[in-house]
Amino acid sequence: MKLTILGCYSATPRALNNTTSQVLEINNHMFLIDCGEGTQVQLRRHKIKFNRIKHIFISHLHGDHFFGLVGLISTFRLLTRETDLHIYGPVGIKEIVTLQMKLADSWTNYKLIFHELSSNNSELIFEDDTVEVFTIPLNHRIYTNGFLFKEKEGKRKLDMDLVEEANINVAYYRKLTQGFDVINEDGVLINNESVTKPGTKPKSYAFCSDTYYKEDIVPIIKNADVLYHESTFLDKHEHLALKTKHSTAKQAATIAQKANVGTLLLGHYSTRYDGLDAFKEEAQEVFANVQLCEDSKVFNF
Amino acid sequence: MKLTILGCYSATPRALNNTTSQVLEINNHMFLIDCGEGTQVQLRRHKIKFNRIKHIFISHLHGDHFFGLVGLISTFRLLTRETDLHIYGPVGIKEIVTLQMKLADSWTNYKLIFHELSSNNSELIFEDDTVEVFTIPLNHRIYTNGFLFKEKEGKRKLDMDLVEEANINVAYYRKLTQGFDVINEDGVLINNESVTKPGTKPKSYAFCSDTYYKEDIVPIIKNADVLYHESTFLDKHEHLALKTKHSTAKQAATIAQKANVGTLLLGHYSTRYDGLDAFKEEAQEVFANVQLCEDSKVFNF
User: Fold this and answer.
1) Are residues A180 and A249 located together in one domain of the fold?
2) Is A46 on the interface with B (CB under 8 A)?
3) A105-136 confidence digits (pLDDT tens)
């Protein structure tokens, strides 16, 4: 699981700060999460192949999370993309994009498929053989979702000594890796777990931006390997977090601790602060394993 | 007259190329012309005070000319702007901006005044004591205007020897600078031009992007001091210019020559070419005084 931070600052892009956008590589998928202004340039800087992006997840319709979307869609068109593109985001996102395509008389050649979200409950919005994506309903000034990306249980590994000892025909080996019990050459039912071991532990990544402190999300993100949780403010500005429906670093850490996640990533920093160290220090008072997002930083988990 | 090129490439922003946007300073006005994605970052890089921008002119609704507009408007809001902002652009621009403000539940505190354009004739769209702005109807794939910025005739200068000789009361000096004839102390009408000289020669700037070769614009931009004319292609790709309704450098130069402008600026280059020299060379076969726009280049005229 590889996470590339294209941008992790709040509010407005600046000469040295990009607004929210991340690329998550998981099980050969490349998911784009949020798409602030300038995201396409950041994608180019990281030499990320545009055609590998087939699914874009937009948390909410504040500009710092999606003003780069229409430009990216338009650039894909100019580069004669043919691959389908799925967009997941709040109701209204389709109207914004299609209105601009209509007025520019510039329709995409590729298929643009919108999945508009409106539920206040966690929903499964994407699934294939290897990955599932669920929404994480957040609480912000407008309708907002986080996203939980979960690898599915990998194939089980055969313990060859035990498999041979159990006298199982080779034709059943694939069934075994898929977790099924099988009948051996002697007509006896062999319990799967008696001859196989679990595959690679599936990983999960929870992306939560923007939101105020909200414990309701804890059950949804429970035991996630990695949690990105916004931390717009430091503790001394908790009143601003409350007012603008954002979180402090300490609140993000409290969520991480209650959800028992592996690693907490902080981001969506207000640019009012001089450096980022205080975010990490304040979070670590509550939860030990904290890392700071920075623009262009790459995490491997 | 000072022109700052924020971006001058066509199609899509890249790591080292910005799409169209320019700032024209003329007679204490600061006009923003087109606003491709990332324009707000370029404005910051050039330390251009956001509050000095009161008028934004958008040529047409292709993304490389306006995808940065909604972000800029949004950033102005976040920075608690109070100054009115006037937007001039094709019909539809108001709907695009207001739809996004509505869905973000983020209305500006400052007054946002849209001047939607739909005429196919050159119109006066802005005027005050010192400057006039006219549209230049262009011919592109969708409804497009260029803009002609014209200083008004400056105040006349008094020839003090002649003024005193003509026995004119000092109370009339202001009237003289404004070009009026006045009556002297002896009750005789004094012809203005007999005691004054013309003020500073008013300057003009014509911005023409995007368009195919179209001589209709020549009378509108006749004798302009500076003409920016798009030159997306080199001569060998004239067929592409025709197909996409753009111009070659040579066609831009032909317009400059027919309109008898002072200086021709080239821009809106396709990124298919390795360097820009060939644009200048081809244009100079037709018109001598050619300069190349480049991102972040500043011209003083």
Assistant:
1) no
2) no
3) 999 999 999 999 999 999 999 999 999 999 99
Decide if A288 touches B, using CB distance below 8 A: no
Q: What's the pLDDT tens digit per position in A25-81? A: 999 999 999 999 999 999 999 999 999 999 999 999 999 999 999 999 999 999 999
Asked whether residue A139 falls in the same domain as residue A184, the answer is no
B188 and B269 co-located in one domain: no
**CB nearest A78 (choices: B11, B95, B105):** B11
Residue A27 Cα, gap to closest chain B Cα (Å): 28
Same domain membership, residue B214 and residue B76: yes
Q: Is B133 found in the same domain as B104?
A: yes
Active site (annotated) includes residue B128: no
Instruction: Write out the residue range of the structural domain in which residue B177 sits.
Output: 157-196
Could you tell me if B61 lies within 8 Å of chain A, comparing CB atoms? yes
Find the CB nearest A38 among B38, B63, B141.
B38
Q: With an 8 Å Cβ cutoff, are A71 and B12 in contact?
A: yes
B40/A13 Cβ within 8 A: yes
Residues B58 and B89 sit within 8 Å (Cβ to Cβ)? yes
Domain with residue B59: its CATH number is 3.60.15.10
| CA-based nearest distance A112→chain B, Å | 17
Contact between chains at A40 and B13 (C-beta distance less than 8 A): yes
With CB atoms and an 8 Å threshold, state whether A96 touches B95: no
Which of B42, B60, B97, B103 has the highest number of chain A CBs within 10 A, making it the mutation to test binding with A? B103
Number of independent structural domains in chain A: 2
B120 and B265 assigned to the same domain: yes
**Partner-chain contact B67 A63, CB within 8 Å:** no
CB A105 within 8 A of CB A3: no
Amino acid at A45: R
Q: pLDDT tens, B95-128?
A: 999 999 999 999 999 999 999 999 999 999 999 9
